[in-house]
Amino acid sequence: MLSFFHAFGRVLPFALVLAVVPAAAQDYPSRPVTIVVGYTPGATSDLVARTIGERLNAAWGQSVIVDNRSGVGGNIAAAYVARAQPDGYTLMVGTDAMMTTNVYLYKNAPFDPVKDFSPVIYAGANIICLAVNTEFPANSVADVIAYAKANPGKLSYSSAGVGSASHLAGELLKTMAGIDMVHVPNKGMNPALIDLMGGQVQVLFASVPGMLSERSERLRPIAMAERKRSALLPDLPTIDEQGLKGFEVGNWAGLLAPAGLDPAIVKKVHGEIMSILATPDVKDRIKTLGYDEIGSTPEDFAAQVKNDVERWSEVVKRANVPMN
Asked: How far apart are CA 118 and CA 91, in angstroms?
């Protein structure tokens, strides 16, 4: 009899834990939720967080607070969230730069993008295309490659800065096409666009919304850098379609939580955000920010992070990008 009560006493706490787990997910959220952003207010990822946060607030009846922790390319925010309790009350809008290239651009990055986070949902990609100056004799990727091979050292491309998506996209093109291009870094995308329109460089990987807002007759998009065509420019073929198979670059954003978050809470947050992203006003809002391919499963998003971390490793190494 004593052995029975002894065994029962050992089993009971475990049974209580099992009972509490689904209850915790069912009651979630029971207090305010914080969405951490690694950039300043007004940045694209910040606007994504606020768009989603407002709707979560309405759906849950709980405050959803956007906490901007900018600095070190988003590393401050990512490190903070990686160390937070995995209870669902600290979430983060992560970007491809924070989650896939920062580990190669900063010495001793204070987090592991694959091991330290629970991916919840891929919110979308900020569409990038390859554009040329209109006086440059190229209407396709093949034309750019042919010119580079026929004119060694004469083809140049601008970027928003060393280590930026526009820089690494150029390095990826160089590697996959086997060509040489001179990199001209700038402090932001606007100066890079000015370089292209002024003819100081011939080529630029630029955000489609930013490029279209210029409405300039001095630049011409020739290829989409994403894996598939964008609704913003449906007639513009991808670089992959034009012969460089597997070429893909995009400034994505997604929602993540600290590693170890209860899968039931992941599922609950994911389902709520999928419903939010499907509403017409949010769809329109996200598209005005230049995002395409809205939504994913947590598993697909986790695979995206892992694959991008592996893919950019070699590109950054070959480009000899100095670490900060």
From this structure: 10
Tell which residue, 148, 123, 127, 120, has the closest CA to residue 136.
148
- Give, in order, the Cα–Cα distances in Å from 123 to each of 94, 152, 181, 205: 10, 40, 33, 22
Q: How far apart are CA 154 and CA 201, in angstroms?
A: 10
User: Which candidate, 315, 185, 304, 194, places its Cα nearest to that of 250?
Assistant: 304
Per DSSP, helices labelled H in 157-293 are 165-177, 189-198, 208-214, 263-277, 280-288
In this structure, the answer to whether residues 315 and 265 fall within a common structural domain is: yes
Judged on CB neighbours under 10 Å (0-12, 13-18, 19+), 153 is: exposed
Q: Domain limits at 115?
A: 31-126+250-319
**What integer pLDDT is reported at residue 301 of this predicted model?**
95
Question: Distance between CA 207 and CA 225 in Å, rounded?
Answer: 10
What is the CATH number for 142?
A: 3.40.190.10
Are 108 and 256 members of one domain? Answer: yes
Number of domains in the chain: 2
| Phi then psi dihedrals of residue 202, to 5 deg | -105, -25
Q: What is the structure's pLDDT at 214?
A: 58
CATH of the domain at 113: 3.40.190.150
Alpha carbon distance 78, 98 (integer Å): 7
Residue 84 has φ and ψ, to the nearest 5°, of -75, 160
User: How large is the angle between the packed helices 165-177 and 141-150, nearest 10 degrees?
Assistant: 70
- Residue 249 to residue 225: CA distance in whole angstroms: 5
Residue 151 Cα to chain centre, angstroms: 35
Read off the pLDDT of each residue in 317-324 and give the average, rounded to a whole number: 77
Q: What percent of the chain has pLDDT over 90?
A: 61
